[in-house]
Amino acid sequence: MKKIGLKIKKKLFFRQIFVLIQIVLSFMFCAAHAEETEKKAESKDFASQDTEPEYEDYVLSDMESQLRKFSSKESGIFSVNYFDSQTIVQDTFGDTAVRKIYDKNRRLIHLEGWKISSNSSDSEKEYYEDYFYSSKNERTPEKCITINLKEKHKLETLFNEKGLKISEKRFSLEDESEGKDDKKESKKESKIEESNTWKYDGSRRLIENEKITYLDKNKKNIQKNVYDYKIEGEEPDYTFYENGLIRLKRVYSAPGEYKETAYFDNGFCVESYFKHGIKTEVLQKAGGQVVNRVVYEKE
């Protein structure tokens, strides 16, 4: 019985020694692993300080194989989201982002331009546009209102049925925040600075553009450009008016050949002749009489 008791004690002793060895080895392994992990973390943090973040190349689609997100180094990040029958498209590259919202008929109804900062609180909207349609089935907008928060102005643009601009008015938004009531702010916003109108022929070609700049309440500058398409496929004849007076006229006689006349005050004008796009002769006139003539030699 004593021999059996000694054998059991020996087995228990050796088993305790084995367990202690395992505990010591496990502590040593954990310490070494922790030290290695800390070194890797330090090296990673150091590397992140010296390198700029890069866009990851990937394409993300939903369960219906519809594109939801796209990213590349060359194009930045493009994402598509759907909310309340609207489609929201966002295109981000560098420190700029453009956000577009389409209605259920896939018509653009709102657009925003943002300046992106690493700190979200410093990011700011620079401009936004709202589009309006004459009917639910109309695909081309009839009106667009643009608010430029950075340059502090408002644009009201009208389009024809072909989507071409026919008029645009620019209003100043300066000092709008100083208004203490709605009436004062309304007066600030309704101050017109500039207006443009465009006219087109049946081939969608521009035939007239008039620009009015409002200098003050009683003074404005009116500039008009008129285009006359006489030679099919060639440059049109061109006339420029300022406050009702002709200031420049260009008339083509053949492709690349034209006469250009600049009109000044007091009956003085300069006629320039071009052939193959190269100036060949200049006449200076006063009161209809030639006072100087310059002929350019062919090279």
Oligomeric state, counting identical vs distinct chains: single chain
- With helices defined by DSSP (H or I, 4 residues minimum), what is the helix count? 2
Summarize the amount of helix as a percent range.
Answer: 10-25%
Distance between the termini: 130 Å
Q: What is the number of strand segments?
A: 19
* Poorly predicted spans: 1-9, 22-55, 176-180, 182-188
| Global Rg | 37 Å
Largest sheet: 19 strands, antiparallel
Overall, the morphology is elongated
Query: What is the average of the pLDDT values?
Result: 79
> How does the helix and strand content classify structurally?
alpha+beta
Q: Report the β-strand fraction as a percent range.
A: over 45%
The SSE order reads HEEEEEEEEEEHEEEEEEEEE
Architecture overview:
- It is a single chain.
- The chain has a 19-stranded antiparallel beta sheet, with no helix packed on it.
- Strand 17 (268-275) and strand 18 (278-286) form a beta hairpin.
- It is α+β, with helices and mostly antiparallel strands.
- Residues 1-9, 22-55, 176-180 and 182-188 have low confidence and may be disordered.
- The protein has helices at 2-50, 182-189, and strands at 58-61, 67-72, 76-83, 86-93, 96-102, 108-115, 124-132, 143-148, 153-159, 165-172, 192-200, 206-216, 219-228, 237-242, 245-254, 257-263, 268-275, 278-286, 289-295.
- Helix content is 19%, strand content 49%.
